[in-house]
Amino acid sequence: MSYIAKPRITHPGLAKNALGLTSRDYEGAVSTLCAGCGHDSVTAAIIQAVFELDIEPHMLAKMSGIGCSSKTPAYFVSQSHGFNSVHGRMPSVTTGANAANRDLLYIGVSGDGDSLSIGVGQFVHAIRRNLNMCYVIENNGVYGLTKGQFSASADIGSMPKKGMPNQQEPIDPVSTALSLGATYIARSFSGDKEQLVPLLKGALLHSGFSLVDIISPCVTFNDHEGSTKSYAHTREHYNHVVDVDYIHPSEEIKASYEEGEAMPIHLHGGDSIILRKVDDSYDPTSRASAFKYLRERFNAGEITTGLLYANETRDEMHELMGNVDAPLSSLPLDELNPGKEELAKLQNRYR
Prior knowledge:
26% of the residues lie in helices and 17% in strands.
């Protein structure tokens, strides 16, 4: 994988945050994704979120797995820490890193294939442990790097350009996370930066596992009529697979609509989706209400976006384990080693 460095030219009039940094200081390499890809919009939203939160670049750890989505960390905050794991293993690598150094701020960028297929078991246990991280899923319903096969999030009836429609039940990451006890759950659309940036900021500041499921249409393999993960069908459904050798640059689809409103989005391929934002009457602190509302809107053919659930009372992983406040990586060996007597007592418990 090759990366193109951006020229270090900064306009003197760019706004600075409390650290004296501009948004350019939170950028990374030049994107090699397809023109019009929703993932690049997600990158821009992350850059804006961490810039506005005054996060020190060296205190951020970017984690990823395999897929188009997992290229995203290369495109933001180049002066941060980062680890690109094998397919589906980002949650366990992040768990280990977080266990060693709880002082860093962890953001994991994954995809529907990386998280809901080969990595679904790891995704489940990261939620179960209430791992303190912001977990971003760039959800497009397909495997883009391997030419557009359906992923585990593709809806029944989703049509590829060639072949049979999908007949497998989809896995909804939001409903899954809600049932497993995730403490911050949100969904948005890559083309709705006005909604997405605040949701990302809330996820980064939350203590515990934060999921941000982002419908991010694949302009190459899943953005045509019949697709349930397309740009128009994206806020409520997923777009379609298109096999092409040449990818013509497309104009990014953007959306702006008020709380409580449903809005149709027309995709590049001609199909449409309907997005609905939750309004002030929605209670994001009730799991039961969230389950009921999400199911009702799903049955109505709508994709619900916004902050869907938040629980600030549950302890995160270090608190559940009773760990010391200092990062384990900073402790000297004599403090980490319990000694022969304590080790013997521990071993005797299992005899």
